[in-house]
Design a protein that fits this description.
Helix content is 17%, strand content 36%. By secondary structure, the protein is α+β, with helices and mostly antiparallel strands. Strand 27 and strand 28 (522-530) form a beta hairpin. The longest helix has 17 residues, at 274-290.
Length: 598
């Protein structure tokens, strides 16, 4: 591997201030690693100091570690690990001050509890191995420190349980190492990272692509692309006034050109300052990391195995649970039960609410009807009558009831449904009788995408500390499956499209009734392309990233199923699939299994 002749200057200089001085007041020299502090056992709040003896560097190298309160209270749990890499001139003590932005997020429940490790990577190492000195900072972190942490503490020792982020030198190091070792990390973050920075023999700043042609962020992004697309989450922040700013936009464009997802935030008037970066971006960075690493798991559970690519199949016969109901004066010969939800009530009975369309009800003609079954496997559940109708006095669309979906959280049943414009909420104590919830201005509707975007068909899945709400919408003609996330199940933020186009088509009706389920290391998205009698078709996509299943991209496509309006139901350890009957005159259920594609 190529290295410039004056590697000491290249390796140990990072900032203009550092490179301008030969020796600091504390006696440390950027070009002399023997003057660096490798083990700083000062006592600090919230963390405990320890060290790992580095065989590669023949010395003790310190670290600080934070263990969440439940670590000792719940010894049956394993925890994800977040590694923080300090900037130039720093060490494990200076980096541990990051706890002032991590701890509030963890204590507020905004992120899952995790072990936090503050690394000593060598004051000016760039987190690289030197070929002309004893400094082996990359080897120490990857081959010595991480294995030691996994041995000493109860960690989730797979990539989904490991995050890495840093500032400046540490930001650049975090991104490069995450791209280089995608089997070790699931998410990487950088505050003002030295992403593509190095110096030549004269001390002039140059691109790391020149200094390290086979060991830079572009090289590893290209080489490991298949292992990074939909598997690595990246978040970069930088200030517009920073000397490192110019390296960020081209790298972001390069990642996105490769299909590697990257989030990016810029503050125009920000200089190169960690304290200000923490104030501006700290909460976003910590929440981003926390949304991607795994929540604590039982220590008795096996570590997550390598993902297995599977395909869903229907096993056995279908059984009908609901038929076209009598709606009294609203009954019509054309009416059809369509989008529906199935759940178990507090008394153990099974509940089914379905949107009935093409009725004689005014407006959009859609109303909710309820059925009840004593057991999940019973046929022909009992029809219990009309439940919800669109109420114009609270801002709902008349006759606009669409696609109820129910979850149970802290003893409360929460029904999310569409009203042809908004996603709305109703709650229940018993799982049978629901009350619509209104906003402060006495109207329904948690969120929508505009008056003609027809946000509809919500379903929710909890991933880490976040709730993911998938739904169908078409704002400004952008048809597809959309996603918003929430921490409190009331405020849903950051709408983004996670699937559209490709073989699914490009009409608004090609993206109905999304359902997402996690199984054996992958997220599977089911969505209906066609409702037509005799033409029912649902597409299934598979992804490592719950926020991306394909934008005009069929690489994640798995298969078609000849069904419409799927809902996946978990009863014990067995999955079931509910769907519309072929003639659109009822609802049926069958067992859902998975087969290997090998």
């Amino acid at each position: 591997m190529h290295r410039p002749y004056s590697f000491l200057i290249l390796l140990f200089s990072l900032t203009a201030i550092v490179s301008a001085q030969n020796e600091r007041p504390d006696g440390r020299r950027p070009d002399d690693p023997n003057t660096w502090s490798w083990n700083v056992p000062d006592q600090m709040n919230h963390v405990t100091h320890d060290f790992v003896y580095s065989e590669s560097m023949d010395r003790a190298v310190g670290y600080n570690v934070y263990l969440p309160p439940s670590y000792n209270q719940k010894p049956e749990r394993d925890y994800s690990v977040v590694y923080f890499l300090h900037g130039a001139g720093g060490d494990e003590k200076s980096s541990a001050y990051m706890m002032d932005i991590i701890l509030p997020e963890m204590e507020a429940g905004h992120i899952e509890e995790a072990i936090i490790v503050f690394v000593n990577g060598g004051h000016w190492s760039l987190y690289r191995d030197s070929e002309i000195s004893y400094v082996k900072s990359e080897t120490h972190l990857i081959k010595e420190l991480i294995p030691a942490i996994d041995k000493r503490y109860r960690t989730i020792s797979d990539r989904k349980g490991r995050a890495i982020f840093g500032f400046s030198m540490g930001g650049g190091g975090s991104v490069r190492l995450a791209l280089k070792y995608p089997s070790l990390f699931c998410v990487a973050g950088s505050f003002s990272g030295a992403l593509d920075w190095a110096r030549d023999g004269s001390g002039k700043s140059i691109s790391s692509q020149v200094a390290y042609p086979e060991d830079n962020i572009y090289y590893w992004a290209n080489r490991n692309r298949e292992k990074l697309v939909n598997q690595m989450a990246i978040y970069l922040t930088v200030g517009g006034n920073e000397w490192l700013y110019d390296d960020h936009p081209p790298f972001i464009d390069h990642l996105r050109g490769l299909g590697i997802k990257a989030n990016y935030s810029v503050q125009g008037d920000l200089d190169h300052n960690l304290g200000t970066s923490k104030k501006l971006f700290g909460s976003k960075m910590i929440r981003f990391l926390g949304a991607h690493y795994r929540k604590p798991v039982l220590a008795s559970e096996e570590a997550e195995v390598e993902p297995v690519e599977l395909r869903p199949v229907v096993r056995g016969d279908w059984w009908r649970v609901a038929s076209n109901p009598d709606l009294g004066k609203w009954t019509s010969e054309q009416q059809e039960p369509v989008d529906f939800g199935v759940w178990q009530a507090a008394d153990g009975s099974w509940q089914l609410w379905s949107c009935i369309r093409k009725t004689k009800y005014p407006g959009r003609t859609r109303i909710f009807h309820r059925w009840e079954g004593p057991r999940f496997t019973e046929t022909d559940w009992s029809p219990e009558g009309i439940t919800f109708k669109g109420d114009g006095t609270i801002g709902e669309t008349i006759g606009g009831m669409q696609a109820p979906y129910v979850i149970k959280v802290d003893g409360e049943y929460r029904m999310y449904y569409g009203d042809y414009r908004h996603i709305c909420l109703a709650t229940s104590k018993d799982g049978k009788v629901f009350e619509k919830q209104l906003l402060a201005n006495e109207v329904a509707g948690l969120f929508g995408e505009g008056p003609t975007a027809m946000a509809r068909d919500p379903m929710l899945l909890k991933i880490g500390s976040l709730w993911y709400c998938y739904y169908s919408a078409q704002p400004n003609g952008k048809h597809g499956v959309w996603l918003r996330t929430s921490r409190d199940l009331v405020q849903f933020e950051n709408p983004r499209r996670v699937m559209t186009g490709g073989q699914s088509g490009d009409e608004w009706w090609n993206f109905e009734c999304p359902q997402v389920v996690y199984h054996k290391g992958y997220y599977y998205l089911f969505h209906t392309q066609n409702y037509g009698v005799g033409k029912q078709q649902t597409s299934v996509y598979r992804s490592n990233d719950p926020e991306y299943f394909g934008i005009d991209d069929d690489r994640n496509f798995v298969c078609h199923l000849p069904i419409a309006a799927p809902e996946i139901i978990l009863d014990g350890d067995q999955m079931y699939l509910a769907a519309l009957t072929p003639g659109l005159d009822g609802i049926r259920i069958a067992r859902l299994d998975w087969i290997s594609e090998q």
